[in-house]
Design brief:
Helix content: 55-70%
Largest sheet: 5 strands, parallel
Distance between the termini: 52 Å
Number of helices: 42
Strand order of the largest sheet: 6-7-8-5-9
Structural class: alpha/beta
Number of strands: 11
Length: about 900
């Protein structure tokens, strides 16, 4: 035990006295030593300074971060760790050591996750007097988001900009410290806005610190600078335990406590609470294989059970009321006949609850322990009291939610109120909130047809929010019916959409084709949209399609009624793809180019962009339009993040990662791949790691490519995802071209090129031509070149014509070959396609060396090697190094 902490000393942590001498009551893992102490509000007083056990490094990080902000730079940090590990303590340390900062706080609350912008309002609530200083669009967007004014759904981009502007304006007067704790429970809209701001802070003198249980790469804060918190070191864990259990303790018992706590400070403080010496003599006093959070909650319950019943009822009210508004709590308590101050005193004395400017629990696990342990009837009574105490004019959605939780059975009045709340949530971009409101609305509806209608609406919202299993469950409830013809078609459509979003396989095209045909006599526009979805799904199924192949769906789409006027971008996209598949590339390319261009325009609705941008990205690849591919992929990622469309986001991230890979920015690609992998796991989607495979191939990591293929090929076959096979074959061809094993590359490229309906010719044919030319299979290379030129001439972009020139040079000699290589370098040099440019330098250098022009060859090979090495394309870099060595130049590793 530190010499500065004497046995029997009464210590304080963040102003809360402990129950035990030496116990650190609120911030686990904290001990005080001589110096200065800062209370929660940042006020300084002489006495003792907070020191965090085993957190010297983390405190040093915070000290440096705040110093940077004082110097005029903004900083962001995400603390990650399990419950009780000390995230809140560290955030408190930051506040305590920044008396010269303004401090703004927000805290995620699990029961508020469905309410859009709830946490953002916590953070910015005291800044709203500055709202009038913001630009008009930002002011209006934030005002609508916070319910300060009426208006259409705010653009999430403008909400994010408004918060950024607001924080910058506040920080202009004094450095600003934003503390956001329990970020894993932020509502989706707030999480997206705060992540948006965090990624754009630069020189505003703002520190933004998050605490979350989400692991690295997970949640909406993925990609932000992070710091993972582990358990206390063994010696510090023993010191902390000794402060809780003074006196002698059996060594084996102590060792078991330390081991079972995993160094978690809160576990060390709370698990031994109330255990007698006799109990400890026989072992650890907490039985059962509960997870750590569950065991901590159980110990909190042991502390709650002896409290007076009226105190327990007040605790339940506070647990059910997530805002932490003391006035609302007192009104609700009064409605239940509870004298609030008398009831609160025992809980406050025990350190479980603090009532001040806000009502706060000792720890989030106290809240969950109180709420989960209460009987269902008691919980309903608590929610009813809160609903009655909530103003329906200023907070109708929370009132509706509490009324819903209070309902013991069907209640049409409450169900209708929830339906209205769902509409408001969706208008504000809160898909998860809308889904939750509609799901509860359906559950409270008694009339069968109305219940089916609401269940279908809830299923659609759940699908958009990425909750596929929940959406399927609600669809089953909707199908109990009765359903009208249009609703039945909607059910088939949604089943197809979920099948495609979750597996991308052959199940989806027949369902979507069936729905499209059902919609034809009912709604032409919706029928055409569904044909486009069916065609997109069929392209993914490719060679493995069953009962809805690419040509069948394309032919059906060609026979569909013409689009209503005005013709929209999705109509052009459907016609372009259908004509290209049925009539060939020269016929379809002009239509497809018009469609791709239309999607870059400004008259595309958010709904259309969310639904079709990934298909438009694919079409941009087909017509060799890299810039549009990149622009649309980036736009879709941003839109999906802004509205929380988790069903769309993994595919959008994959498309953007693939686009960035061509620029050679492999670090950015790796970050997007990690985020997509986390999301597919979270949503249950089965999207294969397309971009990870491409990245590993270009980096020359043969073992990783083979491992990814082996891990995913059976799933791709089982789901009937032909495009997945084409992707694997293309990656294999690219890998082995880089490694100089051209026979293997040729075999893989030929397999992929056999199925042009999968629309991979843009990428596959250049690999095939290179591998065939290097293998001496000139006939195969010439045939592939003819097919390639059919697409490049119709496209006419620098990417297309540069690729064709390079491929043609491989089959040419003398001055013709040299002119073609130079044309390819010139054209590709005008693009951002650094990988393609580097490969052209490599091929040109190899040709020059074989022409015995070593000096000229070195120039090209050196450029190729430098580019490949800089981007991390190991296989191609090694190939360039070998060629350079053959010219007599020594290559540094």
């Amino acid at each position: 035990m530190p010499a500065s902490l004497r046995r029997g000393e009464r210590v304080r942590v963040c102003g809360i006295p402990s129950r035990h001498p030496g116990v650190l009551a609120r911030n686990p893992g904290v001990i005080q030593g001589p110096g200065r102490f800062y209370d929660d509000d940042g006020s300084r007083r002489e006495g003792r300074r907070v020191m965090l056990l085993s957190r010297r490094m983390e405190c040093g990080v915070f000290d440096g971060l705040l110093a940077d902000v004082r110097a005029g730079r903004s900083r962001v940090l995400v603390l990650r760790g399990e419950p009780g590990i000390g995230k809140t303590a560290l955030l408190g340390y930051a506040a305590g050591t920044a008396p010269d900062f303004l401090v703004a706080r927000a805290e995620g609350v699990e029961s508020e996750m469905e309410l859009p912008f709830a946490a953002l309002h916590q953070l910015c609530g005291r800044m709203l007097s500055r709202l009038g200083r913001l630009p008009g669009p930002q002011r209006d967007a934030l005002g609508v988001a916070f319910g300060l004014r009426s208006g259409s759904a705010p653009d999430h981009f403008f909400v994010g900009l408004a918060v950024l502007s607001l924080l910058s304006d506040v920080a202009a007067d004094r450095p600003l410290l934003c503390l956001i704790d329990d970020a894993q429970w932020l509502d989706q809209a707030s999480a997206q806005a705060l992540a948006f701001v965090a990624r754009r802070l630069d020189a505003e003198s703002v520190a933004m610190l998050f605490g979350t249980r989400d692991p690295a790469g997970a949640g909406g804060l993925a990609g932000l600078p992070g710091l993972a918190l582990g358990g206390l070191a063994d010696a510090d864990a023993r010191t902390l335990l000794a402060s809780v259990l003074p006196g002698r303790l059996d060594e084996q018992v102590r060792d078991r406590i330390i081991a079972e706590s995993g160094g978690n400070p809160l576990a060390l403080l709370e698990l031994p609470y109330g255990v007698t010496a006799a109990e400890l003599a026989g072992g650890f006093g907490v039985a059962g294989p509960l997870p750590l959070a569950g065991r901590i909650e159980q110990n909190f319950l042991w502390r709650i059970t002896p409290l007076p019943q009226v105190t327990q009822r007040l605790l339940l009210l506070a647990a059910a009321e997530p805002v932490g508004d003391p006035a609302l709590l007192w009104r609700a308590a009064g409605g239940l006949g509870i004298s609030a101050e008398d009831a609160a005193a025992p809980a406050e004395a025990d350190g479980l609850l603090t009532v001040g400017a806000r009502v706060t629990f000792r720890h989030p696990l106290v809240r969950s322990a109180v709420y989960q342990a209460a009987p269902a009837g008691d919980r309903r009574r608590a929610h009813r009291a809160i609903a009655e105490a909530t103003d329906p004019g200023t907070d109708p959605d929370r009132r509706a939610w509490h009324r819903a939780q209070a309902a013991a059975g069907p209640d049409e009045d409450v169900a209708a109120e929830l339906e209205r709340s769902a509409g408001r949530a969706q208008a504000r971009g809160g898909l998860a909130a809308a889904a939750a409101f509609m799901e509860r609305s359906a559950a409270l509806t008694l009339e069968p047809a109305r219940r089916a209608e609401r269940a279908l609406a809830a299923a659609q919202a759940k699908y958009q929010a990425g909750a596929f299993d929940a959406a399927l469950g609600l669809l089953a409830a909707a199908e109990v019916g009765p359903l009208e013809e249009f609703q039945s078609a909607q059910v088939d459509l949604l089943r197809g959409q979920i099948a495609f979003a979750s597996s991308r396989g052959s199940d989806a095209p027949p369902l979507l084709l069936k729905a499209a045909r059902q919609f034809e006599p009912l709604d032409v526009r919706l029928a055409r949209e569904t044909y486009l979805e069916a065609l997109s799904a069929a392209l993914f199924a490719g060679r493995l399609a069953v009962g809805g192949g690419v040509r069948e769906v394309a032919a059906a789409a060609r026979a569909a009624p013409p689009p209503p006027r005005p013709v929209r971008a999705p109509d052009l996209l459907l016609d372009g793809l259908a004509v290209l598949i049925t009539d060939g590339y020269p016929a379809g390319a002009p239509l497809l180019k018009r469609a791709v261009s239309a999607f870059r325009g400004e008259d595309i609705s958010m709904r259309e962009q969310m639904r079709w941008l990934w298909v438009a990205c694919h079409a941009a690849i087909v017509v060799w339009d890299y810039e549009t591919w990149h622009v649309l992929a980036a736009r879709q990622v941003q839109l999906a993040r802004d509205v929380g469309a988790l069903a769309v986001l993994p595919m959008a991230l994959t498309s953007l990662a693939a686009a960035l890979a061509w620029t050679g920015d492999f670090a950015a690609v790796a970050a997007l791949i990690a985020e997509a992998a986390t999301l597919t796991e979270a949503t249950g989607s089965q999207l294969p790691p397309y971009s990870a495979l491409a990245l590993a191939a270009w980096q020359g990591r043969e073992a990783e490519v083979r491992g990814l293929i082996e891990a995913n090929v059976n799933g791709v076959m089982r789901r009937g995802e032909g495009m997945g096979l084409a992707n694997m074959q293309w990656a294999t061809a690219s890998l082995y071209n880089g490694l100089g094993r051209y026979e293997v590359a040729l075999a893989a490229a030929q397999q992929a090129a056999e199925h042009p309906q999968e629309l991979w010719s843009t990428l596959v044919l250049p690999e095939l031509i290179e591998a065939a030319a290097r293998s001496g299979k000139t006939a195969s290379a010439a045939d592939a070149l003819q097919r390639l030129s059919e697409t490049t001439r119709a496209s006419g972009t620098d990417w297309a014509l540069g690729t064709e020139a390079c491929s043609r040079a491989l089959l040419s000699d003398g001055q013709a070959a040299e002119s073609l290589y130079r044309e390819a370098i010139s054209r590709l040099g005008r693009t951002r396609l650094r990988v393609a440019l580097a490969r052209t330098h490599l091929l040109y250098g190899e040709w020059l060396r074989r022409e015995n022009r070593r000096v000229d060859a070195r120039e090209q090979l050196r450029a190729a090697h430098q580019m490949f090495a800089a981007m991390g394309a190991g296989g191609f870099a090694e190939r360039a190094a070998r060629e350079l060595s053959a010219t007599g130049e020594r290559v540094r590793k």
